[in-house]
Amino acid sequence: MWSKVVQFPIEWDKKKGIIKTMFTGRFEHTIDTKGRVSIPSKFREILCVSFTENLVVTNDVEGCLVAYPEMIWKEFTDRVAEKSRFDLNVRNLLRFYISGAQECPLDKQGRIMIPPALRDYAGLAKDIVLVGQVKTIEIWSKEKWSEVFEKSKLGFDHKALADLGL
Predict the structure, then answer these.
(1) Gap between the Cα atoms of 141 and 65, Å rounded
(2) Better-scored residue on pLDDT, 165 or 139
(3) pTM
């Protein structure tokens, strides 16, 4: 059963006929022994209306997983493909981030199955948190998320955010 933590309403761009609000909110859930995770209904609505029902999931440097709608992943990888392979940062990105990516389509119950290697990397055993990140969804073990969230609350550099116009 989903435990709703935070959620924002979906906003429609009537001129373009698309959802303006992307993935927002935090949802606590469990992952089963086969690695299946239910995607929150609001996230599924956004996927079905604005994208396809396919997510691409990869490992992230902070110890979580990141799920991309297929179209957003393609835009990202197209930008990476334009970069020089002779740049060490590009090679590291390819080796770590891109090579970890796995397609995870939604099943008829609105679940994705996360492959064992990705589950192991992120320490996903039972309790998890799905975190909307505007264009992507982070998938955390509940324990790791609690630590990162507490650090995040204390880590705001208000001047830096103001300099960014936020």
Answers:
(1) 9
(2) 139
(3) 0.83
